[in-house]
Amino acid sequence: MLLRSLPLLLSCLHALSGFAKGDSCVVRAKADAGDDTPALIDAFKRCGQDGTVSLPDETYHINQVMNTTTLKNCRIDLKGRLLVDINYWLEHSMPIYYQNQSTVWFLGGENITFNGFGTGTFDGNGQVWYDFAKGRSNYPRRPMALTIFEAKNSRFSGLRFVQSQMWTMTIMYSSNILLDNIYVNSSASNGARISNTDGADTLYADNITFRNWTIANGDDGISVKANSTNIVIENSTFHGGAVALGSIGQYAGSFETIENVTLRNIDYLGGFYAAYVKTWTGKSKGIPPNGGGGGLGSITNVTLHRAAGVFFITQCTHWSSGGEPGNCDTSRFSVHNITMTDVHGNVTNPAVATLKCSPAAPCHDIKFDNINVAINGTDKKADQYICTAVERPIGWACTETRAVEQPWVRMLLVSSPRINRNQPAMSHCIVFLQPAKLVASLRLLILESRSCISEHRPQLATAPPVVVLNP
Ligand SMILES: *[C@@H]1O[C@H](CO)[C@@H](O)[C@H](O)[C@H]1NC(C)=O
Ligand SMILES: *[C@@H]1O[C@H](CO)[C@@H](O)[C@H](O)[C@H]1NC(C)=O
Ligand SMILES: *[C@@H]1O[C@H](CO)[C@@H](O)[C@H](O)[C@H]1NC(C)=O
Ligand SMILES: *[C@@H]1O[C@H](CO)[C@@H](O)[C@H](O)[C@H]1NC(C)=O
Ligand SMILES: *[C@@H]1O[C@H](CO)[C@@H](O)[C@H](O)[C@H]1NC(C)=O
Ligand SMILES: *[C@@H]1O[C@H](CO)[C@@H](O)[C@H](O)[C@H]1NC(C)=O
Ligand SMILES: *[C@@H]1O[C@H](CO)[C@@H](O)[C@H](O)[C@H]1NC(C)=O
Ligand SMILES: *[C@@H]1O[C@H](CO)[C@@H](O)[C@H](O)[C@H]1NC(C)=O
Ligand SMILES: *[C@@H]1O[C@H](CO)[C@@H](O)[C@H](O)[C@H]1NC(C)=O
Ligand SMILES: *[C@@H]1O[C@H](CO)[C@@H](O)[C@H](O)[C@H]1NC(C)=O
Ligand SMILES: *[C@@H]1O[C@H](CO)[C@@H](O)[C@H](O)[C@H]1NC(C)=O
Ligand SMILES: *[C@@H]1O[C@H](CO)[C@@H](O)[C@H](O)[C@H]1NC(C)=O
C-alpha cells in the first residue's frame, strides 16, 4: 500500500476579531498529525452559516473527502496540509461527472469569502501523482483538490496552489465568482510528464472573473469549458500554459456553449498560444468518448485584448492512447465571432494564427486588429495566417489555405528523460504523428519529440507536428 503525503495548505494569518456576526470556529491541527477532516467538517457545520472558519498557521491532514456545499455568509481563513494515501483517493474521490474527473473537496454556497492572505496554500504534493500516473492522461479518480460547486456571489483571494495533483480546481454550477491574486505552480522535480494540472477549469459557470493570476504549470493555464458564459480573465501572467477555450463538444447529443469571454492584459511567457480553441471531432468514439466527440454547440463573442501571443484553433481533438484516425473534417461545433486586438510580443515562427476549422461547420467572423508580433530575434513581423475552413475574416486574409487538418494521430510523448531534464517546461508535450509514421521506430519518435521541444518555444504559432495538451 502506498502511503504518500499530499499537503493541502490553506492559510490564515488573521485573528478573528469579531468579524462575523455568527460563530467563529478555530480549527487546530491534531498534534499527532492525524486526520483533521472530521474537525474541519464539524467547523463548517457549526460556523458555515453566518460565521468564520479559521485555521491558524498549522499543518492539517485531510485524509477524507469533504463536501461542504451549503455554506452561507461564511468566511474561511485557512492554512493546512493534505496528507494522502493514493489508494484511498482512487477509491473515494468524488466524481464531478465530466471527463472522468473527480475531486477531494466540493465547496459551495452563497457569499463565501475565502482568504489566503497571499500565503495560504493548497499543496497537492503532486509529485507522487505525477510519478504514479506516469504520464497517463486523466487517470481515473486522480482528484483535483478543490471544486467550487454551486457557489454564488463569492470571492477567493490571495491563495496559492502548488503541486496540484490533477486539475487544480474546477468552478462548476457557479455564478458571480471573483478569484483574484491567485498563484498556481505545478512542476515535476524529476522531469516527469505532468499533464492535466490545469490551473482552473470552468463548467456550467456564469460571470466568473479571474484577476491577477500567476500560473506556471504543465497544461492549460485556464480552460473555459462547457456552458461557460461571461468569463473575464485579466491582468494575469501565464508561464507555459495558455487560455484554452475547450475542450468542448465531447459528448454526442449535448449542446454546449462558451459565450462572452474576455481576456485582457495578459502576459504569456514561454507558452504556446495566447489562446486557443479545441473542439472534439464530430464522431463519437470510445467510452467515455475519448477517441472523438460528436457534441454540438458554439463558441462565440470571445475577445482577446492586449496580450502577447498568437491564436490557434483545432476542431480535431481526440485522445486515445492507441491513436484514432482524425475525422478532422467532421465537427459541427460552431466557432465564430472571435476578436483579437492589440496583440504584441515575440514568437518563434511566422504565423499570427493557425485556424484549423472543420469544413462541416466553418469558423466565421474572426477579427484581428492591431497585431504587432515580431519573430523573435529579428525585426520581421509575424504576418502569416494559416486557415482551414474559415469564412468572412475581418481585417485580415488567409495567407495560406490548407486542406482539412491532417488526420494526425495523437501519441503521448514517450518517456524521454534526456529531453525532459533539459526542458522540464515541455515535458507534457504531445506529439502528433501521421498514421504512416506510426510504424516509426523509437528513434523517430524521439526525433519528433525533440523537434517539438526545440522549435516551439516559447510561443508556438503554427501547428504540426506538435500541439500541447490533453483534453
Ligand atoms: C454533497 O452534499 C450535497 C448537499 O448536502 C449533496 O446533495 C450531494 O449529494 C453531496 N455530494 C456527494 C458526492 O456526496
Ligand atoms: C457575506 O458574508 C459576510 C461574512 O463572511 C457577512 O459579513 C456579510 O454581511 C455577508 N453579506 C451579505 C450580503 O449577506
Ligand atoms: C473513466 O473512469 C472509469 C472508472 O471510473 C474507468 O473504467 C475508465 O477507464 C475511465 N476512462 C478513461 C478514458 O480513463
Ligand atoms: C458578476 O459577479 C461579480 C462578483 O464577482 C458581481 O459583483 C457582479 O454584480 C456580477 N454581475 C452580474 C451581472 O451579476
Ligand atoms: C497580485 O497577486 C499577488 C499575489 O499572487 C500579490 O502579491 C499582488 O499584490 C497582487 N497585485 C495586485 C495589483 O493586487
Ligand atoms: C460580457 O461579460 C462581461 C463581464 O462579465 C459583462 O460585463 C458584459 O455585460 C457581458 N456582455 C454581454 C453582452 O452579456
Ligand atoms: C488591470 O491592469 C490594467 C493595466 O495595467 C490596469 O489599468 C487596471 O486597473 C487593472 N485592473 C484591475 C481590476 O486591477
Ligand atoms: C448548456 O447550455 C445549453 C445552451 O444554453 C443548454 O441547452 C444545455 O441544457 C446546457 N447544459 C447543461 C448541462 O446545463
Ligand atoms: C454577442 O455580443 C453581441 C453584442 O454585445 C450581443 O448582442 C449578442 O447577444 C452576443 N451573443 C451571444 C451569443 O452572447
Ligand atoms: C461579436 O462579439 C463582439 C464582442 O466581442 C460584439 O461587439 C459583436 O456585436 C458580436 N457580433 C455578433 C454578430 O454577435
Ligand atoms: C528571443 O529573443 C531573446 C532576445 O531578444 C532571447 O533572449 C531569447 O532566447 C529568444 N527566444 C527564443 C525562443 O529564441
Ligand atoms: C523581441 O524581439 C526583439 C527583436 O529581436 C527584441 O529586441 C526584444 O527584446 C524581444 N522582446 C522580448 C520580450 O523578448
How would you sum up this structure, described in words?
InterPro entries: Glyco_hydro_28, PbH1, Pectin_lyas_fold, Pectin_lyase_fold/virulence. Belongs to the glycosyl hydrolase 28 family. It is found in: Secreted. Keywords: Cell wall biogenesis/degradation, Glycoprotein, Glycosidase, Hydrolase, Lyase, Repeat, Secreted, Signal. One of its GO terms (biological process) is pectin catabolic process. The longest helix has 14 residues. This protein has 5 helices and 27 strands. α1 links the parallel β1 and β2. The protein is globular, with a radius of gyration of 22 Å. The strands form 3 sheets. The chain has a 22-stranded parallel sheet that branches. The N terminus and C terminus are likely disordered. By secondary structure, the protein is mainly beta. The chain has 2 domains: 244 residues, Single-stranded right-handed beta-helix, Pectin lyase-like (Pectate Lyase C-like), CATH 2.160.20; 169 residues, Single-stranded right-handed beta-helix, Pectin lyase-like (Pectate Lyase C-like), CATH 2.160.20.10. One 2-acetamido-2-deoxy-beta-D-glucopyranose binds next to β15 and β17.
- Percentage of residues assigned to helices: under 10%
Low-confidence blocks of residues: 1-20, 407-471
- The fold-level CATH name of the largest domain is Pectate Lyase C-like
| CA-atom Rg in angstroms | 22 Å
Number of helices: 5
CATH class identity of the largest domain: Mainly Beta
Strand content: 35-45%
Count of discrete domains: 2
